[in-house]
Structure prediction request, 820 residues.
Amino acid sequence: MSIDGLIAQYKEILEDSPLNYAAQWKANHPGSKVIGCYPIFTPVELIHAAGMLPVGIIGGGNRLEIAHADSRFQSFICSIVKSTLELGLTGKLHFLDGIVFHSICDPARNLASVFKRNFPQMMVEYIHFPQNMTSRFTEDYLTAEYERLKGAYERLAGKTLTDDDLQRSIRLYNEQRRLLRELYRVRRETPQNLSTAESYVLTRVGTLIPVEEHIEVLKEALAGLRDRDEKPKDRVKVILEGSFCEQPPLELIEGLEAAGCYILDDDFLIGWRWFVEDIPVEGDPIRNLARAYIDQSVYSGVKHDSREPKAKHLIDKVRETGASAVVILAAKFCEPALFDYALYRRALEKLEKEGIPHLSLEFEEKMWIFDKARTEVETFVESMLFD
Amino acid sequence: MAKAAEAVKTSYQGQMHLLQKEIMGRYFERLTRAAEQGEGKAAYMLISGNPVELVLAFDMIPVYPEINALQLAVKKVSLPFIQKAEEIGYSMDNCAYVKADIGMFYSGRKTPFATIPLPSLILCNYVGCNVYLQWFEHLAEYANGEIYNLDIPFSRDPSGKPSQDDVRYVVKQLEELIGVCERITGKKFDYARLQRIVALSAETGELWSQIKALTKQVPSPFDAYFDSVTMMAPLYCLRGTEEGLKFFQTALKELEEKVQMKSGPLPEERFRFVIEGPPPWPYLRVFRDLFAKWGAVAVASTYSTVGGLWEFGFRHDPNRPLESIAEHMLQWNLTNRNFLQRYEQIRRYVEEWSADALVIHSVKSCRLFSAGQGDMREYFTKELGISTLLVESDIEDPRYFSEAQMKNRIDAFFESLEHKKMVREAAPTGEGR
Ligand code: SF4
Ligand code: SF4
Prediction:
């Protein structure tokens, strides 16, 4: 298939109903089990090694009407918490055998409890990811936490996990993440050949299908990309940051690009591109996974690493990519992202003096705020291009 | 409508309130001396499941930005600080405790009650609240100070108990923290001293738990929300000291006398309620009066258990000081428990403290408390058939309090509760419930 066709095919699935696609997969594979993964991070290897399919439950998109969940979660709670509950309350998550949440923020944590009460047939797991990155004992703790989770999935799957099973899964996900890093490299170096909306589709589809298939999709896409040779347009090169949990509508991403940006890097779906390098395969696989979280995982608004200042990575990214502006795109009411912005802003104000400005925007899953965001970006881009 | 009372403004002002003012005054003077004369070293900490014992063992001064933030709100000076923080990049939608504190930090750390010292140690005891991590991460950058993230695994076992691995992890971190404190203060860790402090905490916990049991009486001798907050500051700032212990001895004695005299905080106790959620500090008085006018007394509150949950049996143990500090942080406080454990805690309160109703105060700032309280209401009304009122405002930001709306909601609720009560009392026994 041509690369255009490939992307169009998956885009349709995402726009249509991604969860139906996953539910259909389960229907076609009798006896299989599916575990929903709420953002941001999930040790998908543990689920995969148990022979189950990890599926990203990443909000309701911009077509879901919230009719029940808003009486459970208040107006000042982000969209994804409410839309995820709405999906559950309207029976759209029936195909899940389990769902896993983790310690990203207080609303998501309370949502895990609300799920437990409202959907007793589902195995609701909650991971506490450590936030002490300097202790000598953090690795032991997370190893134990992963062991606990492994036990839970063994019981659900009715199967004992061997080191071989786990190592095979780590190898596969290493390959998938390597290909994703490659995809992002192509976009960073030749943004005219791969739009952010396209790379988003290619990444997001990986949250719905088995990793083995996703690897093939990515290989095909990367091969197809080699044939693209577009002429760079006169656009502002930006780094986008802040959408690590709730995802903006695809149309908004397209809108940002159409307004005149090349987005060289972003933190969309960051939990599915979790590690900056391969996780070692040799040795105790559970311990390797734990160690990777502490030493090889991406930075994000929900990991607080006192080893270095929060904004350092963002600034490094700007420098490394040669971006000429930063766009902060945070979900409305997303506390971690909004707090991060205060620290980023301090650092970004220094960059501003070097002529690298930034723009801060908020989004919701629902579509109606688009125009405003697009106009703001257009004004921002114009001020940069015609200054 | 029955005797829906004229405004009742009485509230209980006993010796313990005076004593509280005095000892907290001394505490704040200590902060000012540390800030202005460099007397002593300050350790910033968070309220939830705080390990104050450890800090005291090194003679450090515990400074709680949350207490400072709430004092700003009570003294009605929080808004300019909140706005200051919003000017420098904080969002309308961020927790206003953080904003008030950071605004104050950027305004010279001067408040009407104390000058707040710079931290020698920024001890982020991450007990439940995820905002804590960012709050202290930011303070560490602004103050350019040393931070230790004391990571407390959240409750996730169906039993509600931490695993052995969790306890070990926390104890190991506490040992590391001891090393950090030794380096910062230049003092050698004294195990026997920590044991003595922990013993004082154990006694304090015992007294506090006895005090909390008194509100099972009819009438309740004090309001377990509005009067409990008076006792919470000494519980966090002075737990583990003789002075703190004396305060709780005085309080218990006084409150027991009130039980003897069958006297409560209001002229007449007509309704007993359990309240969930933090108070609206900027309008505490107004809020209290809205209940007082109905003769409604809070007999239990979840808010009074954020720093520690003693009424169900937990005591510190001087023979296992570090383990018991770890257990306090992991298991015996409200914030590190999951939402369903909170439902359970409230259910027990309603039953064992014989309450007529549940009031949920949903605050925008504190999502740890509020996120999902609509589900909680659903559970209590639909599953348990308990009359439940949900009202919204904020813990710190005065812009979110609408007195007229609040009054309407509370009046309508108690009117209907009164009606139900009348029907019940009129019905022959066993019916109408
Ligand atoms: S969008 Fe932000 S606030 Fe909402 S669940 Fe995700 S991390 Fe939490
Ligand atoms: S969210 Fe709640 S517990 Fe956390 S800092 Fe704010 S007021 Fe305190």
Chain A has a mean pLDDT of 95. The pocket of iron/sulfur cluster (ligand 2) is lined by residues B 66, 95, 97-98, 129, 131-132, 135, 365-368, 395 (CB under 6 Å). Chain A touches chain B through 57 residues (CB under 8 Å).
